[in-house]
Amino acid sequence: MGAPKRHRSTRDEEKLTAKQRKTGKHGVDDSVSPRSDIAGNDKDHEEPSEDAGEDDYDVISDSDEEAMSVANNQTLSDASSNSNFDNHLSYKLVSTEVDSLLKRKWKYTWKVPTINMSNCHWRGTGECINKDLETNSLSVLKPRLYKHWLESCKASGSSESHQSKLRPFLSMCSSYCDIMHYNKKPFYLKGLEEDSNIMDAYLLHSLNHVFKSKDLMVKNERKLAKNQGSVECKSVDDDDAYRDRGFTRPKILLLLPLAGIMRRVVKRLIKLTPTKHKAIVEDLERFCEEFGSGRSEDKDEDDDIENSKLKTSGKPADFQALFGRGDDNNDHFMIGIKYTNRGMKLYGDFYTSDIIIASPLGLITKIGEAEGQKEKDVDYLSSIEILIIDHADVMLMQNWSHVNTVVEQLNKLPSKQHGTDVMRIRPWYLDGHARFYRQTLILGSHTNPEMNALFNQHCLNYQGKVKLECTYKGVLPKILIQARQIYERFDIESIVEADNARLKYFSEKIFPKIKDSIQDGVMIFASSYFEYVRLRNYLKSQSASVCLFGEYIKRNEISHVRGEFFRGEKKIMLYTERAHFYYRYKIRGVKNLIVYSLPEREEFYPQIINFLEESDNMNCRVLFSRLDNLRLERIVGTTAAKRMINSDKGVFVFA
Length: 655
Known about the structure:
By secondary structure, the protein is an alpha/beta fold. The longest helix is centred in the N-terminal third of the chain and has 35 residues, at 192-226. It is elongated.
């Protein structure tokens, strides 16, 4: 299996209480705020309209049937969901609120404990969205969607525990605030149940948003048809109630890093879609041929396949689960999903799709084509109302700048009209305020400065922000050998000088000892490609005997490089975190380990240290600065990390 191709880069209004005026719903420091307290195929030559067509909607909408259900005293109510959906999209921002949001000064004013994660808690801006996250749990869903989900859980044998664990996050999603959850245990690291709960929650939320948007447009189309030619119809232009759409149809953008993960999500999306909306799933056969059937996600089959592979492969279990299939590592894909009165269509034209699922690289390619060819555009990104970035930690192993570029491209004014009735477009789209209404979910197993920057600088939702904060025990107990780990802190004067300070410390304190020693088997581990390049150039300038094992190594060179190092023909091996992520080879012959920069993924740290199992002295030196706190606490634990960052001493030993 080859590593996937990756591109390189350098890197409506109501009065508020006095308290609300002081804080602001969105948590921005705002002295005056009137905010109320409320809970694939890209055919560029086509310009389809978002206006309702007979192919897109049923004669009897879900809202009609749900009204009948209430009339018949059925217990499930849609009032909570309507409140969140309608209030969020009908709210009118005023200029002072926009100015406050643009200042990006977020005040996290509340904290609530998480459920099933004793080491974490939620923190948010503005008013606490829900002090008890179990409240208003599944009542946020449309009755048809909720009923189908229950039937799906029963059919798959899901326990009550699965349902109860899904409710808090779904309730949080329905608040329409921005969310950053960076302690999600992924399915490939024995976190299948937790990952599935989070995935079900955001897929249900997305489907709920799509179906409610459709219901609103159907309702308004009927009113307009009924009142056609009347005085009421002539006043439509001045009635915001009929402004129910954006510039283009797509409302949900789901960014995923790999095709294997995308296949898993699409399969689950189909299962969660009510039967009425998936009587026919067009192009399903094509999807299965291109990305695989996804049958391995069935519990029993998944266990059998995983066990059979592990018997014949030296790769660890998480690698097998993430890259086990032939095309799972494909990071270039993009498909549109459209819901009609006949069912759902995969590979829909992007302008007529409701949901777009893509990899960052897939979208970057489309953006690049639009910039280079005038007849092409990416206006289908102009009306995204929910952005979901799942497995963001894996994207860090690709090219995070692609994610930034995609997010910056969202909610821009389109270059063409694309057949949409301008009189039906919501005012805040026309005002260029769509980004303040977009909800963004960033989900991953850990965070880093780049993810935090995206959340703080590009997620400007007026509803506010919620993020997870955690304490860590560290991963040192997972080291299988008695390795002596010497952590050395180097001082920095500014963030700008951090990289130079690291290289200077290495060249003055570490490398001279390596150069003067006759010992071979020295591995230097670097986390980023940028650090790898700087080290490579420095070592070559010192005429060091070095072999290179980076993420862009050719597959036919791997055995040669490993052999040279093992036999001592090359004294030093320069090894990167991404190379470890995509290849996961066991490197033999490591006698001395230098961790130039701590890995982003904490599970890699014990694996790298365990490379020393054949060494006689088992010594390891680790460089870190105060800017490495996020990585450090995941590895040594939150308590130890605070001590190491704040201590007057600069050297710390773990054995």
